[in-house]
Amino acid sequence: MAKEKVLVTSALPYANGPIHLGHLSGAYLPADIYVRYKRLNGDDVLYICGSDEHGVPITISADKEGVSPKVIIDRFHEINKKAFEKFGMSFDNYSRTSLPIHHDTAKEFFLEFYNRGILKEKKSHQFYDEKAKMFLPDRYVEGTCPNCESEDARGDECENCGALYDPSDLINPKSKISGETPVLKETSHWFFPLGDYQPNLEKYVNVMNEKYGWKENVMQYNRSWFKDGLKDRAVTRDLDWGVKVPLDEAQTKVIYVWFEAVLGYISSTKEYSENVGEPDLWKKYWQDSETKYIAFIGKDNVVFHCIIFPAMLMAWNNGEQKEKYCLPQNVPANEFLNFEGKKFSKSRNWGIDADKFLELFPADPLRYTLAANLPENRDTDFYWKEFQLRNNSELADILGNFINRTFTFVFKHFEGKVPVLGKLEKIDEEMLNEISEYPKRTGDLFERYKVKDCTNEIMNLARDGNKYFNDSEPWKTIKSNKEKCATTLHVCMQAIYTLAELFSPVIPYTSEKLFNMLDAKPVAWAKCGEPQLNAGHQMNKAEILFPKIEDEVIEEQISKLNSEKSELPKEKDELISYDEFMKTKLKVAEIISAEKIEKSKKLIKLKVKLDDGERQLVAGIAEHHQPEDLPGKKVVIVANLQPAKLMGEESQGMILAVEKKDGALQIITVDNSVKNGTRVK
Hints:
The chain has 681 residues and is α+β, with helices and mostly antiparallel strands. It folds into 4 domains: 5-118 and 193-334, HUPs (Rossmann fold), CATH 3.40.50.620; 120-191, Methionyl-trna Synthetase, domain 2, CATH 2.170.220; 382-527, Isoleucyl-tRNA Synthetase, Domain 1; 578-680, CATH 2.40.50.140. Strands 16, 17, 18, 19, 22 and 25 form a 6-stranded antiparallel beta sheet that branches. The chain has a 4-stranded parallel beta sheet with strand order 3-2-1-13. A 4-stranded antiparallel beta sheet has the order 5-4-9-10, with no helix packed on it. Helix 1 links the parallel strand 1 and strand 2. The model is unreliable at 566-572 (pLDDT under 50).
């Protein structure tokens, strides 16, 4: 098989806070495991990442602390870089978007598009704080949503109902800088015509999917964006923190972070090239049609890596210059990892940061636990008890036990040397055949980005090894047939060698210790299932690879979590009288039709039928239910609610739903035999 040239990137983490376990399982651990596998496969691999250090959230954090944005980014760049190192991330380069090399790269792209007339200048009205003498980005303005009347809506979007609106429609806007009411003031910005590239983007995504099998969740996100239609996107902002717009008439503007952050992959590769003394080396990866570019991200970044970044590269490639950038061949985005049944939340102090976790436990048990439960196709959860179980019952009792019992026997009865392979019986041949098949079996899974399945499959080899050891009964044959015992242990040692290599992408620190115990080195991935340890090879003393995690250690973490949870302000239920409750009329209604509301991520427009006719409802369930699945269902609605307008659509009632542990909304349905309009009591 021909060796590949592979460029791998992981989403640039935002330097506004420490990374947590959810981040690790989304864009970083799967990429690192894939990269380590590809290197062992002999491929030419370059792994790039770095800190995303511009944008409004950083300036808000700086304002709150009364420091400069640089203080914030310096702090969290170092925290996250050290956490990644301790976790075992094998980046070839971990850069920063605040570096001059990145600013130059972003300006180069901006000017290329500006000079070719791609960017469109448009005038618009934006909130301006007269007291602070500055234009206010959306996150610096809060007010009342014009649709749902939520009181903490942002300048152009309401997180409560998902509505998008013109800033001038925000009710009672206030500046988060001064607390004053801002005024609308005209400003001009440059826009990238994303919609112009939609036909080519759709073709690109479909071709890549057909050739390389993109994940269905990624394709669904893309289809949703294409269905809504791509719009022009502003590439400049009125801010003083970021990459300065390289135009004389735009000295007070910066390049929008969505435009310049993705270019951090290119600038980080340029920095790597300079660091190794080959300034043009970056072109070998970014501007070679043979490059296999894989972008690992979380699902919240799909639009940037499947649509926006490829569109920018397409725009560049359509120019007259000879250098053409390669586009992602695959974007294996993961879903989210939750923590003990709930989403990670900094504001609610829910979760644990990577640096804090790694102060308590070594990296490999965490890497294994996350890898064996990656949210590849759906959201998954991290539980402290599961972490303990994975460490104790799988790493220690399956993998560690197989290694320890084999080494103990070899050192006790064969002077720590690999025993001679004697006459093979059926059980020995079957085990050797099984060992030889694992490199291809697991390699095929890695090539398809099925890290979770691969991790569990590798552990199956350790299970096979334990079963083979038990069925061969070396504790008996050492007394009755030492040659047969030697054969058993020889086969076990070959299995351990194979496990050392197969597991090295997942638990690299442990594999390094294991190779030291074997006094051996890895070989090409395809060959690690072949016999690698010769009879008579002297090994080093074994060590305990996975100490058990005691119950009290885990209970302490759970207790701490519950303690922190109890310190959060609790919402008190306001008691109502029986008569007040009886005023609410809950009725059964049949859904006749359902459709998503344009420009809203959360809202679906429903037409329902009761006993007295039909009516329209607007429900915030679009992220949890597909419109085509709803017609025909019988649901419970609040039938005597005052009508309200959401996104310009009148809602004549409210549909009832339950919120599950993962935050998903499940509408309450009733049996189809119940008549429309039946009162629910």
